[in-house]
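Good day; I would like, with your permission, to put a structural problem before you. A protein sequence and the structure tokens that stand for its backbone fold form the material at issue. I would ask you to consider whether the tokens describe a fold that such a sequence might reasonably adopt. I set the record out below, with my sincere thanks for your time.
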Amino acid sequence: MTQHTKPMAGLLALGLLLGGVACDDTECSRSSDCPAGQYCSRGRCLPFPDTGADADADAPAETPVDVRETDGVPVDGDEDDAAGADADGDAADIPAEDVGPGPCTSDEECDDGSPCTDDRCEAGTCVYAKHPDGEPCPDDEWCDGVEECFDGLCRNTVTPCPAPANPCLYAACDEATHACTDTPVVDGVLCGGATECGPIDVCVGGVCTRSLEGACDDGNPCTIDRCVDDGGGAPPHCERDYVADGTSCTTPDPCGGTGARACVAGTCIDAADAPCGDGSLCAVTVCGAGAACTTVAPTPAIPLLACGSGVTASTLGGANDVTSYGACATDLTGGEAVYAVDLPAGTVRLEASLSGVVSNGTPTVLVLGDACDPTSCIASDSTGGPAVSAAVTGDRRYYVVVDGAANARAAFSLAIDCS
């Protein structure tokens, strides 16, 4: 409300007598009609400006100044206060950004809809004088709290219904009875702090309740996940166990294939038809997004093991590259792990042994003379260990391969011995 409401009312009444006025397309008549964070100006809801550090912060509270003051220069034409203004206060010399919309011919045209400014038309330009900060500007609503002027705008300062300390309740306000009621929030709203188990404290019926169901889920069908709350002030934590090896499983990964899959050592192994098998132990082909196959170039070197050394590895993932190894073995449809072994001169026997095997079947260990030629196999063992032994010639390289029939895949430790 400005100080010029009565003349506007008179003009409106005159318009009605003369045959009606244009359709009313205004959005608001007061700031309380607007969404939070906006105020009403000339029938439109506008966002509150960034008040920042107001240039007139030191102005006496009893001396309202222009709401559009910039850099400490008021726009009322006072030659003592505004450097560069005409001595007669000619509004035509006022910078455009310091004044309101114009031109104007009457004070009513300058109404900005704020009850915290006095709006007037001076020399065809709208100017605005702010009411003192803290001056009441009440509306007709109780639930939106106490309204006071601040920097020329009417803002809510104190709510009649303070938020409850319980995060699972909110203060509901009844406009008709002027009463506040603590009301439960929607069930499932988070109400606790972060934990290793994730968000486990949720609101249920207005009470913050610890819910461990579904916590710690890693999305792996081959693990049993649980959140353990030991109490006594100790923070809850996740624990995981593997399901039984051989348990059937599926994942949405297209690189895993469409055939039968099983859990081994907490991993859902790839199926025998996993894509990107390239038919060679020398090439490396990877499966990417959309099961697109890409051959790695240059070809990575095959890992080298020395006599007396070993490695812990697995064949749980990846495509089946080679099925037949000449006279040694056929129908090996599992994934492969390949290692090179350089034998010192005088070596006559190479032994490769597996230990700590976790598998959905029986892995097969083979010794090849040439990794690029599977038919160069000279020895194999398909009994699951403990070892394959091959007669060899010293001072040359051989290759040890771990594969498996019926898509047998394994996690294992491989040891190399030479004699």
In short: The chain has a mean pLDDT of 81.
